[in-house]
Amino acid sequence: MLAKLIKEFSKIDRLPVEVSEVRDAIIKMGIQDEIIFCPDEKMDQKKLWGTYYQYTYRKTMYGDTSLVSLIIYCASLGVDWQRVVCCKEMIHVLDVGVEKTKTIDDLDGLVSRLLGPLSTEDFGICDIMAAKDRIALYQALPLLFPMEARNDAVRKKISAEEVAKKALIPVGFASLMLTDKWPELVEDLTC
């Protein structure tokens, strides 16, 4: 599903791509019924920038269930980072089985791996979830700065700073995405 989503967005050459466009595309794919974005004024950006919670509910007592993802992001982040965090969390909507936390212990383990030092001696499911969380950040980038827009920027020799302004993404990501290695990296990230 991720490869399909990135391929769909790869043809976009205008910037910025709105986060709501990504949301709408995921919903259109039938993966999710609703995705709700919620800024959190109290979230400590030194510890957490965003999270997502998936649940089902019924709009009416005997109606069909709806699958919803609530994406909570740190309101004190700059708009560029808010966009990246929201798209990264939407990548998790596409996660499968072992990549998702299902219990409090899973969540505690994931947070411990994300906030704590990396170790080559800690193995387990939480390591897989933490690795997926880190990769999701890079998987979200081609949705906000699609390949066609990126190729156009490379052809026109547009600076990373200008791309960051137009795409509303952090300049460090714009720099990475303008490198010759980026197209190959995108392919590797979506296998």
Strand order of the largest sheet: 1-3-2
Strand count, sense and barrel status of the largest sheet are: 3 strands, mixed
What value does the Rg take, in angstroms? 17 Å
Report the mean per-residue pLDDT as an integer.
88
Structural classification: alpha+beta
How many domains?
A: 1
Distance between the termini: 10 Å
The residue fraction in helices comes out at 40-55%
| Beta-strand share of residues | 5-15%
Uncertain segments are none
Number of H/I helices? 9
Could you explain how this protein is built, in words?
- With 191 residues, the chain is an alpha+beta fold.
- It has one domain.
- The protein is 51% helix and 14% strand.
- A hairpin with a 6-residue loop joins strand 2 and strand 3.
- It is globular and about 55 Å long.
- The model has no long low-confidence stretch (mean pLDDT 88).
Write a short abstract of this structure.
This protein is α+β, with helices and mostly antiparallel strands.
List keywords for this structure.
191 residues; alpha+beta; 3-stranded mixed sheet; 9 helices; 51% helix; 14% strand
Write the layout of secondary structure elements.
Layout lengths: L1 H9 L8 H10 L5 E7 L9 E9 L6 E10 L4 H15 L10 H12 L9 H20 L2 H9 L4 H8 L3 H7 L4 H8 L2
Parallel strand pairs: 1-3
Antiparallel strand pairs: 2-3
Helix pairs in contact: 2-3, 3-5, 4-5, 7-8
